[in-house]
Write a structure and sequence with these properties.
With 369 residues, this protein is of the alpha+beta class. Helices cover 36% and strands 32% of the residues. It has a four-stranded antiparallel β-sheet with strand order 8-9-3-20. A four-stranded antiparallel β-sheet has the order 4-5-7-6. A hairpin with a 3-residue loop joins strand 8 and strand 9. Helix 3 packs across helix 4 and helix 5 crosses helix 9. The radius of gyration is 22 Å and the shape is flat.
Length: 369
């Protein structure tokens, strides 16, 4: 049976009803469909890349330019994947009230003891349900005897995670180049864990790599209601707060300077469409640590608004109506599909620079006539 790719999977999400200004925990089904994934399915992405590569190669030969190569930190990726797995296992154990002991990361996987056979079967079903439709979440489960259970990502899942990270990094690099005003560039995967960038006519590659080194600042911050943001902007804002503008409008928000969660707490983000309204949205999912922290924050701040901030702009400011424990959400805000895609990419890119290492940057002279 063919499993749908991550970006086209049907998933359950806790919905952030941002358009109504209310944060709820209504369960709904949403189909996530990245334009890039749709192209990849029928081979159009590879064809498009081949055409761009041929065009850019011709320009490089005539104009010269810069060649930059990045490598994905595969060791760091494996570590974060196993850490997320441990957190997911712990979350499922707590929710299922399954008795266990000795939960630990060991030899690239997670080990624990569950004495009850039914408990082991229950955990296996929960994890299989989570991985359904997501090849990158497939697990190998080994029974070590005497209640010992070992869980580890399959080789196929590890390869899928690496592919996803490379594609996310390419999207981030393309977006940063666009923001920097670079119109002529080729960003291509190079093998399984490298990314090759050609920039015709650009003779200072270090100025470009400095752009990629900047981390996107993603933050979930509480909103201060002690005074109107306009008053805080014209006077002195309360200690530990600042005034930020809205993402799409001229609204102002008085928010805490410190984030309660950040980009490192997000394990997945992608654009899609709301089931009820069909409007473009950006969906995301926290890792295990982020899920626990968000559940605690929402429980402690019921009836209060909070802000989702990207690079110093508030993209939404819903009100917390009840504890949100599912670890997933959707952001809506009268987005176009392109804007929803950009928001999702920025959410993913929050921790990407930490997974990329610069292998080389060099100036390529034009070919002699």
């Amino acid at each position: 049976m063919t499993t749908p790719p991550r970006d086209c999977a049907t998933r359950l999400f806790i919905t952030f009803a941002v358009t109504t200004g209310i944060l709820t925990s209504v369960i709904m089904t949403s189909v996530i469909a990245l334009p890039r994934a749709a192209l990849a399915e029928d081979g159009q992405l590879d064809k498009m890349r081949a055409k761009i590569s041929a065009f850019i190669s011709d320009k490089m030969e005539k104009l010269g330019g810069s060649r930059i190569v990045y490598k994905v930190d595969t060791d760091g990726l494996r570590e974060s994947v196993v850490t997320d797995l441990r957190d997911d296992v712990y979350k499922n154990l707590r929710e299922g009230k399954i008795a266990f002991s000795g939960l630990a990361i060991r030899d690239g996987g997670v080990e624990l003891k569950i004495a009850d056979v039914k408990g082991r079967e229950q955990l296996a079903r929960k994890l299989a349900s989570t991985a359904e439709g997501l090849p990158s979440h497939a697990l190998a489960v080994t029974d070590g005897g005497d209640g010992l259970v070992r869980l580890a990502p399959t080789n196929a899942a590890s390869a899928a995670r690496l592919h996803e990270l490379v594609e996310d990094a390419i999207a981030m690099i393309e977006q940063r180049l666009k923001e920097a005003g670079v119109q002529l560039a080729s960003v291509q995967p190079d093998g399984t864990d490298r990314i090759r960038i050609f920039l015709p006519g650009v003779m200072e590659p270090e100025r470009v790599t400095a752009v990629f080194a900047r981390r996107v600042k993603v933050g979930f911050r509480l909103i201060d209601l002690s005074m109107p943001p306009e008053q805080a902007q014209s006077g002195t804002p309360p200690t530990g707060t600042e005034v930020l503008p809205g993402f799409k409008d001229k609204s102002l928000y008085l928010v805490a300077k410190d984030s309660v969660l950040d980009g490192d707490d997000i394990s997945y983000a992608g654009p899609g469409f709301a089931s009820a309204t069909k409007e473009p949205i950006a969906s995301f999912r926290f890792n295990g640590r982020g899920t626990r922290r968000f559940a605690h924050i929402t429980e402690e701040n019921i009836a209060k608004p909070f802000a989702i901030v990207l690079d110093g702009k508030v993209i939404s400011a819903p009100i917390i109506r009840e504890p949100i424990t599912g670890g997933s959400g959707q952001i809506s805000g009268n987005f176009s599909l392109e804007e929803a895609n950009s928001v999702a990419m920025l959410l993913r890119a929050g921790s990407l620079p930490g997974h990329l290492g610069l292998v080389e940057q060099q100036v390529v002279p034009p070919a002699k006539p």
